[in-house]
Amino acid sequence: MSIIKPEKKESFIQYFKHNYALYLFLVPAVILTIIFNYVPMYGAVIAFKDFSPMRGILGSDWVGFKHFKDFLTSPNFLNIFMNTIKLSFFDLIIGFPIPIILALMLNQVRRAKIKKNIQLILYAPNFISVVIITGMIFILFSPTGPVNTLLSIFTDKPIPFMTSPDTFRTIYISSGIWQGAGWASIIYVAALANVDPQLHDAATIDGASLIQRILHIDLPTLKPVIAVLLILAIGGIMSIGFEKAYLLQTSMNLPTSEIIPTYVYKRGLQAGDYAYSTAVGLFNTVINVVLLVVANKVVKKLSDGESLY
């Protein structure tokens, strides 16, 4: 009997010749990524220079880590840094599980028409612009707004929601959950669609309750998706949305609403201190990268190897 030898592994050049058309589809995406993501990285050099628009990046004097030291030793650093951490951390802890819960609840709706109508209601807020959302918040929580009108039954005077530092985080996080939780649940709903209905039928016959079926069938299916999204969420914990935080800011709630993105905007575009604001932004990015790597390592150990890399 003759033994059939396995074919030699195809070289990359041969593979490219056979599949070059597939690589051609990647060319536009690669070019756009290089132009809009990698080329602008050169501008980060001004964080280490005494940048002057008249002299340009190359002509400006090199100052090293001076701007980073100025930021780290400034009186506002600890307050701004902790505001960013607290707002992002609470948003992650409270907001991350809600799309998962919504997806699990939607998965229990058996009538397709009712399920579509519920999804439409949940997804709709995502398409409302941030400016309109903040306008709605100011109207609802103003001293003469609907919320204070209802609370006037129990209180003698209106509660200053929009000017109180104590209520800023609650309003920011709750409005963000209302706007984005439904849309964020789409990926979990799609993952649950891959669950074999026969598994639920068999578990039901064996006497498993709804909670047991969710714990032992649905959640294990979602585990890889949850692991990846959690890593990305932790890695972007310092990249909190600038627009809504800035639009919700008032002179009275600055002690809790001033975060790194709004601080960078004010120092960079309003005050014209481009080098200093770039240094602050670069510091923020480095923190994000470190958190991403650490989160990836931790989740990889806790989730049986599920990670980004």
Low-confidence segments, given as residue ranges, are 1-6
- The rounded distance between the terminal residues' Cα atoms is 45 Å
Strand content bin: under 5%
Write the H/E string, N to C.
HHEHEHHHHHHHHHHHHHH
Helix content: 55-70%
- Please, how many helices? 17
Alpha-beta content class: mainly alpha
Can you give keywords for this protein?
309 residues; mainly alpha; two-stranded antiparallel sheet; 1% strand; disordered N terminus
Structure description:
67% of the residues lie in helices and 1% in strands. It has 309 residues and is an all-alpha fold. The chain has a two-stranded antiparallel sheet with strand order 1-2. Helix 5 crosses helix 10, helix 6 (97-107) runs parallel beside helix 10 and helix 11 crosses helix 13 (210-235). The longest helix has 29 residues, at 274-302. It is globular.
Task: Please sum up the structure shown.
The protein is 67% helix and 1% strand. It has helices at 12-18, 20-38, 56-59, 66-72, 77-95, 97-107, 112-123, 130-140, 146-151, 165-184, 186-192, 197-205, 210-235, 242-247, 254-257, 260-270, 274-302; strands at residues 49-50, 61-62. The model is unreliable at 1-6 (pLDDT under 50).
Topology of this protein?
Layout: H1 12-18, H2 20-38, E1 49-50, H3 56-59, E2 61-62, H4 66-72, H5 77-95, H6 97-107, H7 112-123, H8 130-140, H9 146-151, H10 165-184, H11 186-192, H12 197-205, H13 210-235, H14 242-247, H15 254-257, H16 260-270, H17 274-302
Antiparallel strand pairs: 1-2
